[in-house]
Amino acid sequence: MVNLTFVDEEGNRATVQGRVGQTLLEAALMHKVDIADHCGGGAGPQQVHRTDDWLEDTYGQGPGCYACHVKIPSSFHHLLPKEFDYIRQGMENVW
User: Fold this and answer.
1) For residue 30, what is the DSSP state?
2) Is 88 left (phi over 0), alpha (psi -120 to 50) or beta?
3) What mean pLDDT do residues 21-37 have?
4) Cys-Cys with 16: which of 31, 36, 47, 59 at CB 3.0–4.6 Å?
5) What DSSP string describes 58-72?
């Protein structure tokens, strides 16, 4: 189990337990944390940049509608996959 803390726009916090391998949306819905899920979490295939030569198609991972997202502290950015232009553009269009 992992602890997850959801913070809404007004600064209210809800800390819940999630299962390893569970999506953030699944954990939030399981604990009745009210977050936007316009696409139902069922994003279409997304390409993840694994290495310089390998793009992997993933299903149900990554943004689908850009309405729900998380903020990751900059100290962890080096652990994240490379951001693609279409993801950045989608976030700018919504937020």
Assistant:
1) H
2) alpha
3) 83
4) 31
5) ESS-S-SSSSS----
